[in-house]
Amino acid sequence: MAEENKLGLTRRAALVSVAGLAASAGVMGAIPAAFAEDTLAATKKRGVLSTATEMQFPPFDISDNGVYKGFDRELIDAVAKEMGVKASYLDLPWTSVLPGLEAKKFDLCIAPVTITKERLARYAFSVPIADATASLMKRANDKSIMKPQDIAGKTVGGQKGTAQLAQLKAFAAKLSKPVTVKEYVDNNQSYADLAAGRLDASVNSLPNLAYAAAQRADTFAVVSPPFGEPTYFSWVGRKEDAALLDAVNAAILKVEASGEMAKLQKKWFGQTMNLPKTVPTPSI
Asked: Hey, where are the domains in the chain?
């Protein structure tokens, strides 16, 4: 595991610094056809792959007293090493991550993003890094929810703008009784309201919920089976940065082939996952 460095820069200072790098890359990439090459070349030249995520999405991304931890942190460090560079990290609210990518404030979004048809038309995705199938979590002592359909007539919360929340709404629309859906800035708020009894269930990907339930087994339990269509998490780049995404994908596959990916999955998810080695056609 790479040594965990304290996040020394304030978010504003980091944004200013990375924005300056992005502006510099933008000048070099004035000709659109050449920009994809220039982004990768600029990354190699400065020796830094600038990334961003929301560090409130365990077990993928965690801010522990200013120290960045989690599956994404360890995987991007391994990927950057394969690419011959180091990774830098920005902590942004989820709703700011993809807009920040489009504004060229950093090179790569390492927040785990669910591959959907709409997003695939707009962004370049890496090969999958984890399962993203939508599931539900309830209070451990709640016997009224034994399967996903039992949320009919109940209140369920999830993070605003996520594919898992969108799938929840579609699933709930088919149930016998209306489901009250509450949207949160981050999943920790949803989990807090679930523990306090203000929600009956929370929605997220199965790996996220399995981690949360394992951390607080006396409070939470995962509802089986998952209700969502099989989906995957990937990292995200800009469409014009095809060369950079090719390099990232090659590095991810090398990390997987070495067995390091399986070790990270076991450490952070409690199980290994068989993932596609190319970007799959999304089911949602």
From this structure: 11-131+232-269, 134-223
